[in-house]
Amino acid sequence: MQELTDDLIDRFADGGSADLIHDFAFPLPIYAICDLLGVPREDQDDFRDWAGMMIRHGGGPRGGVARSVKKMRGYLAELIHRKREALPAVPAPGEDLISGLIRASDHGEHLTENEAAAMAFILLFAGFETTVNLIGNGTYALLTHPGQRERLQRALAAGERGLLETGVEELLRYDGPVELATWRYATEPVTIGGQRVAAGDPVLVVLAAADRDPERFADPDVLDLGRRDNQHLGYGHGIHYCLGAPLARLEGQTALATLLTRLPDLRLAAEPAELRWRGGLIMRGLRTLPVEFTPPRK
Ligand code: HEM
């Protein structure tokens, strides 16, 4: 993760400016998940393009999203087929996730190639735009809260990671990437918070509102990177709790710490009011995040 992060920063560091969404937050999760799945490096830029088309939410050329999904699914199916053919009898240490999925069995039954492709696709899809927005929203929150950002930079300079860890959780609570959980349906009548929900009724939980609940969080609208009592719902809750949370934490922590350490005077190159956020109800994230900084000395 550190290598991927440094590589991406190397690509724009000399220029003194960047769009942190396009140049950093967007490619990092896609390369990370591709490495984890075992997509060869030379094919990863195709993934980057397909994923880019997918998160434009149909804003690109007509039919582009469907075509990109199809290409990604097709590529994964073929990769799984190739890997299955060449799979060694004994797993090697550090074996990639696709090979793990091919090996996985439940009561002696293996996943079909189609099931393994669907699983790889969902991992990519669930772990991509979410993490882009953790890095994007998180960096934006730090740049607009100079006191908190300096606090974190001081801790990082002193080699203390504790504030980075609580800080990324706080950024998830304060302005998390996922605003709504997926649909739930009541299996029996229930009353929650004074609201009657009949059996079969759909329930949409607004995670972002729960994470600013004054009955749950002290000063919920204040960004406090050192917040301790912070059981936020940024990754959901219960049986569908985010499978990728440890990976996302690692990505978020590595990305933010490396940015603030390598580009210590990072600053916004636009007024906050000029920044545009992606539409849609489920995800919250910036379209662009223009920044400036002093290029690091070599
Ligand atoms: C900051 C980044 C991320 C955030 C904020 C996030 C958020 C969430 C949330 C809120 C849910 C629960 C949805 C619900 O209950 O309706 C969820 C589920 C899930 N996430 Fe994440 N996620 C992130 C990164 C990832 C990554 C990196 C992966 C995979 C590599 C991933 C894979 C999944 C999967 C597979 C589920 C479904 C789990 C299930 O239904 O049992 N997520 N995520």
UniProtKB/TrEMBL annotation:
Pfam families: p450 (PF00067). SUPFAM superfamilies: Cytochrome P450. Keywords: Heme, Iron, Metal-binding, Monooxygenase, Oxidoreductase. InterPro entries: Cyt_P450, Cyt_P450_B, Cyt_P450_sf. The keyword Heme applies. One of its GO terms (molecular function) is oxidoreductase activity, acting on paired donors, with incorporation or reduction of molecular oxygen. The keyword Iron applies. Belongs to the cytochrome P450 family. This is Cytochrome P450. It comes from Streptomyces haneummycinicus. The lineage of its organism: Bacteria, Bacillati, Actinomycetota, Actinomycetes, Kitasatosporales.
